[in-house]
Amino acid sequence: MRGPLGAIIGRHFSAAAAAAAAAGAGGGGDDAATGVIRHDRKCRDLPFLALFAAFWVAMIVNSSFGFNQGNPLRLTYGLDYKGNICGSKHADPDLSELDVRYWMNPNQVYQSGLKDSKIDLADAKSVCLMECPYPAEDGLNFVCDYPEGDIRLSVDDWIDRDYDYFEYLTPDMRNTSLQLQGPCYPIIFPSINVYWSCQFIARPSNVSLKHWQRMGGASIDENMLIDKTIHNTINYKSSFLKRYVADIGKSWPVLIVCGGLLPLFLSLIWLAMIRYFVAGMPWITVILFNALVISVTMFFYIKAGWIGNDPLTVVIGPSDPYVSIGGREINHLHVAAVLMTILMIIALLTSIAIVRRILKATSVLKVAAKVIGEVLELIIFPVVPYFVLAIIYMFWFAATLYLFSSGQVLQNDCKANCCTFDLKQGKVNCDNCCGYSVHYTPHIGIAIFFHLFGCYWATQFFIACSSTVIAGSVASYYWARGEMSHDITFHTVVSSLKRLLRYSLGSVALGSLIVSIVEWVQSILKSLRRRLKTVDSTGESSFQKTVSSSSNCCLGCIDWTIKSVNRNAYIVIATTGKGFCKASELATGLIMNNILRIGQVNVIGDVILSLGKLCVSLFSALFAFLMLDSHKYRSAHNKISSPLFPVLLCWALGYVVAQLFFGVVEVSVETIIMSFCQDAEEHDGEAQYAPPLLMETLGDPSQLQRLTQGP
After folding, report:
1. pLDDT tens column, 154-167
2. Cα distances (angstroms) measured from residue 522 to each of 63, 87, 509
């Protein structure tokens, strides 16, 4: 690095600093009084701070579009023949108790499954019911349109009559009903509630079918296609994605408890144990990590149906035990269980590999433990970005529900040759028989991508802000030779926060933007590679596989390198006030000059801290499994389609919260180690500013010699 850090921070100035201090003696000020970082500060990277602010203005505008155009009910429930959302109290008629979609005309369902058919299932006539109807055991039941026109029944009466007013129909209405043109349609096939849509079972009731034929009803197709057509529609990619997003809204109490409060509590406990029980924490962390990985894997096995008797079911409510219905959600749980098995094996092998090196991690954690003991306010500070992120996440998740459900309900432009009886007009209408669908605007995909990227950038930004504030506080401690312990109060942390807010927010915005872009490019390329594999049925050549694997490996290395440089750049920003690019250059130079010193001391400590974060997030995921396994989320309207998405979200949120609080230890260690190396470089291999507690922790002469010697 150019210029000694001792000239910039701390009470003990070099000669260069002494002149600067003398020149500014008349100015005074808080920073001069406390001896904290203070020289050569000015606002840095302001264009990127303006970009971040403009981005969030655009995020609010983008979200307002979702709030205006969206309706989260669309994510769960279907549309009826009038374009109403099942379960909506604002529909005409009121459908607040009628949330199950049922396709009335079995022939339309069959025809929509044919390859060259002109009718889609979205155009088949559907109605909203309380539950899926079942054929009569000794006769024939009907499901009729909503009562209106000449049918003088209330909706409640219609429901009480099991949706059947066939006996009230005029002769003309009966004739059209027998031709499957309505307003009443026969219940020939049993159906079952699969994610709020009645899926037919291709097993027609012989009794009902005979009654229908005796009445002179039109021929009804009995092909298996009637079952597969609805099943395929329910399992479209867009359909299950909507259900996953809807699960966010249904499981919001789980997200608050397991994604917010629980990781906060666990992180604080972990930091307290690091402070008072540092010697045993590496061992506890490794053992607990393996136990949690095994536990979460077993829960995936249970829900996938591989062990136990409590697998995920796609059916809502009671079902025929002799009917087995699968779904994409079950397949996804199988994949998740396999991935967790692989992770479990890797975790066990990694734990065995690092057993001998855990003692080195203990010595590194002792440094952080003593710093936390001196600056207890550092434990409290991450609560500030925690609450800021909590507010952002609540807004973001609400906007997500509306963005994914945004669009307009419009009648389809179908080419089907169909006729239905219109109760209002009192006659058969052949001009208006197309169904309704939610039509999305062309830019909705971009809006959702923009929304997702904004959340990731905001997360990285506030984590970086927290790291910078912590680095500034810890650096003050180091360069004061540990003699400021009585001065290191919450004021020191507040001073570091003020410097960040006044001078360095632009630099933090730039650093977090770079990390976000690199990781998103990496994820996009991975997605493209998976799609190309799917399209290319002939398979990849060995050269293509090599290029693909190499590019993926390179992107991973670039991502890891940028994250590492960024983390150390934030330390330099906190200590010198430089812009992000200059700070990255200085941090990279210091790392390269001391790669052996930093590496051998810090790598194992990083591994233990990473395992600690995973412990918090895995415990959040495990508790989410337990909460989602309760009756509330397995029945009625709160039934979630799968525990997979809420559990993964709790895992991710738990990791973010752990990263905020574990950053106290992580950044403290890195700041002290970098300051130690810089101190040694400035003083010919003899660290002059290392506080006594650091010397005690690294008191082994051979260890000190290795730290202070160049590579």
Report:
1. 889 999 999 999 88
2. 26, 41, 20
